[in-house]
Amino acid sequence: MTETIIIAHRGESFDAPENTLSAIKLAWERNVQAVEIDIQQTKDSEIVVIHDKDTLRISGKKKTIKKSSLKELKLLNAGFYKEGNWDDERIPSLSEVLATVPENGKLIIEIKSDNNILQKLKYELSQSNLNTTQIELIAFDANTLAKAKQLMPEYRMLWLLSLDYRLPWWLALNNNRKLINKLNKLKLDGVDVWAGKLLTKSFISEIKKSGLCIYTWTVNDLEKAKSLIENGIDGITTDRAGWMMEQLKIS
User: Fold this and answer.
1) How would DSSP label each residue in 106-163?
2) Could you give the number of structural domains in the chain?
3) Which one of 64, 112, 141, 189 is CB 3.0 to 4.6 Å from 156, fit for a cystine?
4) Contact 70, 42 (CB under 8 A)
């Protein structure tokens, strides 16, 4: 069981506001193995940690990330949407998050912006004190991820796939061999897929037999997590990472 890593989705987002320093630090305090975050680039070319293209959902005030400066974004309350007293929570920069990662921690970074973010991302990662094995990159856009791999081949990179997240499973069927061939062509290291009906034992097995890694998102159900671990999944992303590790007896 312990071969599967448990990944805190946007930090410990069940208990604290997603993608904030509070959520991320809480994950490390609970000895979570890995934290997943989302990054975007601001108007002044800074990298901030936020999922949405604008700030309305989390702060109650709408500012588009790519049209706003870091200084402007820092004025907003990033915990506005979450129950509890989070008035002092701010949207963190990537450098602030990198500084929190412990010696045995792994940070999984989802690239939400286009290719223009990559040079700045490479620089910020190079300025951190983290080993290359402590950083992994993921993205839905295969071309962005492939360019990131060319620029930063030292990091493991997984292609995010929705599979049957938005479509009925029978409409979302993929040709596994075609998928594996594309991953190899782009020199990517694996996939990070939606935990739907298409994420079968045979799908996991075929990916792994090809020497590729496979993670899944977002699993908050304990029995589902146990089943995926039995089927050989490499990583499970969850909103309740600390709780999940306790239930699975992972230390």
Assistant:
1) EEEEEE-S-GGGHHHHHHHHHHSS--GGGEEEEES-HHHHHHHHHH-TTSEEEEEE-T
2) 1
3) 189
4) yes
* CATH number, domain with residue 57: 3.20.20.190
Whole-prediction pTM: 0.97
The contacts of residue 56 (CB under 8 Å, 6+ apart) are 62
- End-to-end CA, the chain: 11
Can you read off the two tokens belonging to residue 99? Answer: 């500084």
For residue 213, which of 80, 56, 96, 108 has the smallest C-alpha distance? 108
Residue whose tokens read 């009906």: 197
Range of the domain at 201: 5-248
Residue located via tokens 């620029």:
151
Cα torsion angle, 165, 110, 91, 118, sign: negative
Distance CA 34, CA 28 (A): 8
DSSP state, residue 65: G
Q: Bridge partners of 40?
A: 48
Confidence bin at 178 (pLDDT 50/70/90): very high
pLDDT value, residue 167: 84
Output the furthest CA–CA distance in the chain (Å, rounded): 49
Residue 161 tokens read as 């796939």
Count the alpha carbons within 13 Å of 225 in the hemisphere toward its beta carbon: 27
Task: For residue range 129-177, list pLDDT tens digits in order.
Answer: 999 999 999 999 999 999 999 999 999 999 999 999 988 877 777 789 9
At residue 169, the pLDDT reads 78
Residue type, 13: S
Residue-averaged pLDDT of the chain: 96
Q: How far apart are CA 246 and CA 32, in angstroms?
A: 10
